[in-house]
Design goal:
alpha/beta, three-stranded antiparallel β-sheet, 37% helix, globular, binds pyridoxal-5'-phosphate
Length: 375
């Protein structure tokens, strides 16, 4: 019998992002399967504390994905029918969709042309008497100007929410870790993000009341969960508000805690890969996004701007390089075209030229060379 042909490294498809899983991760999951608790239990609590400590927040509330984290954050921020939530249009759709879940209207803000981060002037213009919250997205892993967003929110008595799905491990220019820069910060643990639980998410906050309300919201609106009732023997519970089942399981949480061991090393590697790209790319052909002075970038994505983007994308894909587009501005999706008329010229112009190159910690220096050569 002939053995299967070894695929040479240069022919293997290179995705734009992927997870790294080691034997210790596998053991952590198997240990939970042998234990008494599979759903929200001691491992969830441990994971919540580990993430909150890492990002210097008082509380972590784990949920089943990053979108659920946004939903719970908007709910606890008091976002409801008739309210407006200012969101950047240069983001993943979930940032806006979660406002719709709460019966509110997402109001789309434009981005800065060079960083693609939310434009502070654009936010200012969109504040009305109905505005409830300002949402910043640390796009591609780069912190927004949180000081400016907090000052603006304070002047108008608004809640700040950070969609930090790209930015676990990032630090703002004033030294504030992402997780402590807004009233509420959400993370996603999808496999392309910095650490993974398969599916999973978390909200971190310093506010005791907001954290309590999110724990209730993720568990149908009930004031106690199954584990608390088992431990106290108090079987009667109340439902003061209606909630959802957004719980994360102990199986997922154990994987998350195990993954968190590598966060610093992985963010470091992502920065090294970004430096390699920047050093080797010809800026006239592929121009990286600008980086704000003094920030710690978490490089969820490495984005360049190119002419003839669609042609370049197809050519890279033909060579097995999983380049991608992040994102089509959310206000341009047909669902939002029906209602919100947003003016976001910078985002629309950027959309024609942006290209995400492969970026994940297990990429080798040779992989970077291969992408640069193909470009
Ligand atoms: C990934 C992501 C989300 C959603 O996270 P899920 O875990 O996939 O639900 C939300 N916002 C942004 C900016 C993301 O990149």
């Amino acid at each position: 019998m002939s053995s299967p042909r070894e695929v040479p490294a240069e022919e293997k498809a290179l995705p734009y992002g992927r997870q790294s899983i080691d034997e210790e991760d596998i053991r952590a999951v198997v240990d939970v399967l042998r234990s008494d608790w599979l759903t929200t239990g001691p491992n969830v609590e441990h994971f919540e504390q580990a993430v909150a400590t890492k990002v210097k927040a008082a509380h972590g509330v784990a949920v089943c994905n990053g979108t659920a984290a946004l939903h719970a954050a908007y709910h606890t921020a008091g976002v409801g029918p008739g309210d407006e939530v200012i969101v950047p249009t240069m983001t993943f759709a979930a940032t806006a969709n979660a406002a719709v879940y709460q019966g509110a209207t997402p109001v789309f803000s434009d981005c800065d042309a060079d960083t693609l981060l939310i434009d502070i002037e654009s936010v200012k213009e969109r504040i009305t008497k109905n505005t409830k919250a300002i949402v910043g997205v640390d796009f591609a892993g780069q912190p927004c100007d949180w000081k400016a967003l907090r000052d603006l929110a304070q002047d108008h008595d608004l809640v700040t929410v950070c969609d930090g799905a790209h930015a676990l491990g990032a630090v703002d220019a004033d030294g504030t870790p992402i997780g402590a820069a807004a009233d509420l910060t959400t993370f996603s643990f999808h496999p392309v993000k910095h650490i993974t639980t398969g599916e999973g998410g978390m909200i971190v906050t310093d506010d005791d009341g907001m954290a309590d309300r999110m724990r209730t919201f993720r568990n149908h609106g009930l004031t106690s969960d199954h584990r608390e009732r088992e431990s106290t023997g108090q079987m009667v519970y109340d439902m003061p508000d209606v909630g959802y089942n957004l719980r994360l399981s102990d199986i997922h949480a154990a994987l998350g805690t195990s993954q968190l061991r590598h966060l610093d090393e992985w963010v470091e590697r992502r920065n090294t890969i970004a430096d390699l790209y920047s050093g080797r790319l010809d800026e006239r052909q592929a121009e990286p996004l600008e980086v704000r002075r003094g920030v710690r970038h978490a490089y969820h994505l490495f984005i360049v701007r190119v002419d003839d983007r669609d042609q370049v994308l197809q050519a890279l894909r033909a060579e097995g390089i999983g380049a991608n587009i992040h994102y089509k501005p959310v206000h341009m999706h047909s669902y939002y075209q029906k209602s919100a008329k947003a003016e976001c010229p910078n985002a629309e112009a950027a959309f024609k030229r942006i290209l995400s190159l492969p970026m994940f910690p297990a990429m080798t220096d040779q992989d970077v060379d291969r992408v640069v050569a193909a470009l």
